[in-house]
Amino acid sequence: MQLVYDGGCPFCRHFAATSALRGGLTDLEIIDGRADSVLRQQLAERGFDLADGAILIEGERCLHGADAVNQLCRQLRPTDGLLRLLISVFNDRSRSRLLYPGLLAARRLALMIRGLPLNPALEPTTR
């Protein structure tokens, strides 16, 4: 299982790293989609734009945005207090879809403060 996240967003980066280190999923691979332009392009061609949210890849199946976070939260077995709190909020699909736009807004604000484009594909120095 792979979680593709926006490494330019400090919230996304923290969630991804904490999920990998303290989430209890040994097969979870986290990938900075902002740094991996080839994977980002492949996902965009399939209709999954990193600018619109994280992407969870399980075999050939991709989940995007709220659905990705919801599925990941349903599988995590965290040892971290903040991660447990996030899971209790986002493990319900309806609640995830309702609250996920707030996460995207926080991401937009963090990227704006850091001077990074919302869409990683628009970065002048992508790999």
Could you explain how this protein is built, in words?
The chain is of the alpha+beta class and 127 residues long. 50% of the residues lie in helices and 13% in strands. The chain contains 5 helices and 4 strands; from the N terminus they run βαβαββααα. It has helices at residues 10-22, 37-45, 66-75, 81-90, 93-114; strands spanning 2-5, 29-32, 55-58, 61-64. Strands 2-1-3-4 form a 4-stranded mixed β-sheet. Helix 1 (10-22) links the parallel strand 1 (2-5) and strand 2 (29-32). The protein is globular and about 40 Å long.
Descriptive tags:
127 residues, alpha+beta, 5 helices, globular
Strand order of the largest sheet: 2-1-3-4
Major sheet details: 4 strands, mixed
Give the proportion of residues in helices.
40-55%
- Morphology call: globular
**Chain-averaged pLDDT:** 86
Helix and strand element order = EHEHEEHHH
Indicate the structural class. alpha+beta
Gyration radius (Cα, Å) is: 14 Å
Strand content: 5-15%
Contiguous low-pLDDT stretches (5 residues minimum) are: none
Number of strands: 4
Distance, first to last CA: 23 Å
Topology:
Elements (H helix, E strand, L loop, with lengths): L1 E4 L4 H13 L6 E4 L4 H9 L9 E4 L2 E4 L1 H10 L5 H10 L2 H22 L13
Parallel strand pairs: 1-2
Antiparallel strand pairs: 1-3, 3-4
Helix pairs in contact: 3-4, 3-5
What's this entry about, in short?
The chain has helices spanning 10-22, 37-45, 66-75, 81-90, 93-114, and strands spanning 2-5, 29-32, 55-58, 61-64. It is of the alpha+beta class and 127 residues long.
